[in-house]
Amino acid sequence: MFIISSILDQWFDERTKVCIDPLREVRAHFSESLRYHIKESKQEVPGSYGIDFCASRKTGQRTVYPEIYWETQFGFVLFVREASGYTPIASIGFEKKSTYLFVRQLQGVKGMKKFLCPLHWEKLLYVTVVKFARELGLKEVRVCPAEKSNYHPFGNSECARGLTLSECAQRAERLHLIYNVTPKKCGFIWDEDSRTHTYVLPE
Predict the structure, then answer these.
(1) Can you tell me the distance from the alpha carbon of 137 to that of 135, in angstroms, rounded to the nearest whole number?
(2) 122 or 165: which carries more pLDDT confidence?
(3) Which of 12, 20, 84, 197 pairs as cysteine with 188 (C-beta 3.0–4.6 A)?
(4) Which residues in 50-62 are b (16+ Cβ under 10 Å) and which e?
(5) What digits encode the pLDDT tens for the residues 8-18?
(6) pLDDT tens digits along 33-51
(7) What is the rounded CA–CA span in Å between residue 70 and residue 57?
């Protein structure tokens, strides 16, 4: 696995090939994970959900799932199956480092609230990345804290442009919940050395 990890860092084509097999195992766990992340108050889930792996050499929009603007090369997409095809409702983006995955992005897709509301979807996506890292034989998963997010209104003046102070505070609180609070609920622990929320995988 460590040889594979080394190869992943050198050749993008090899990344894609190697990621396919572990992903099958992740998908096998997904239906079980989904059950555990349905909110207790929800008796029915309005759709058939699935998860997909997305990879590209570049960041930004991609031909597949153009509704998502990626800050990372790799990611998982939470989607709902509809008559017209797969509709993305949320995504988690991460980079592959030598011994760990680094999560930089977690977001819901605009207008998909009715599908996201029944789920603890943020936890579901974090857990999926942890399982994926385990299948790749990596040592850790790290999450970028809210304060380092490129979209934090108090750290990036561009993101605060056009927003009131109250709206900035609301956005900052939302980022705090997504990137600081939820990882802790998933078992991540703050690591002072890396300045990230870190989930250490057993060897």
Answers:
(1) 5
(2) 122
(3) 197
(4) ebbbbbbeeeeee
(5) 444 444 444 44
(6) 777 888 877 666 666 888 8
(7) 11
Q: Which of 172, 160, 199, 167 is nearest to 183 (CA)?
A: 199
Q: What is the pLDDT of residue 156?
A: 67
- Nearest of 2, 31, 38, 35 to residue 18 by alpha carbon: 2
| HSE (side-chain half, CA atoms, 13 Å) at 33 | 24
Cα 94–96–97 angle (5° rounding)?
125
pTM of this structure: 0.83
Overall residue count recorded for the chain in this entry: 203
Q: What share of the chain is helix, strand, coil (3-state, %, to 5)?
A: 40, 25, 35
**Hunting for tokens 């056009």 — which residue is that?**
162
d(CA 141, CA 172) in angstroms, rounded, equals 23
Number of H helices, E strands in the chain: 7, 7
One-letter amino acid for residue 199 of the chain = Y
100: helix, coil or strand? strand
What is the distance between the alpha carbons of residues 195 and 91, in angstroms, rounded to a whole number?
A: 23
pLDDT for the residue 51? 87
Rounded Cα distance, 177 and 4, in Å: 34
